[in-house]
Every structure is written in structure tokens, then in C-alpha cells.
Description:
By secondary structure, the protein is mainly α. It has 2 domains: 3-41, no CATH class; 48-114. 69% of the residues lie in helices and 9% in strands. It has helices at 3-24, 48-72, 74-85, 89-98, 102-111, and strands at 27-31, 37-41. The chain has a two-stranded antiparallel sheet with strand order 1-2. A hairpin with a 5-residue loop joins strand 1 (27-31) and strand 2. The protein is elongated. The N and C termini lie far apart (73 Å).
Amino acid sequence: MSASQYDEFDRRMRRISRRHSQLSRGYVTSVNDDGLVIAKPKRKIFRRGTVRALILIAFVMLGFKAFLFARIGEAAYAERVNALAEGSVFEKAAAWAMTADPVTVALAAQVSPYL
Length: 115
């Protein structure tokens, strides 16, 4: 066998392995006009791990906001968020995310006796 045949074989094996791993996560079968049954991988928009990670990040962010709000107080927190809102685009986005919402205020009220 020549080197080009080995390369072609390796490409084919990689393609088969990739297809196998895609089908192992779930598939849908369909029948062509000529009667051939074809298995297609299921398309998932979000994987379960991705959604869990986003929810975890949201809870951590909410807890961090509540901790800061309880620790430094309402006036100082609002002052720092307003100062952050006067910065660059990223700082404005952070200020929007860090604004005190009712959930943050309620969690801060629960946490403040322990600080």
C-alpha cells in the first residue's frame, strides 16, 4: 500500500468514528424513495451539561450580588454600580448585570444577620 492509500484509509476511519459517536447520542431513522433506511443523528440545541452550567453561573452570580449587597450596604452598592455604569461597554454590561433586583435584596436580607 502506498502512503496515499493509508491517508485515505485514515480519513475514512475518522469519518466512521465521528459518525458512530454522533449516532451513539441518539438518532432518527428515515426511509428513502428506494427503500434504503438511513439513520441521522438527532440535533440537540443545548446539551444537558450546557444548561446546567448556565443555571449554575446564574445562581453563583445571584449569590455574589446578594453577598456584596449585604456586606457593603444599599447606598454604597448603588454608588459602585453607578460608577461602573459610566465606564466602557463591558463595564456598562457588568453594571446592568450587577443592579440590585428584588431577589438580590431578599437574599441579602437573609444573609446579612450572618455577616
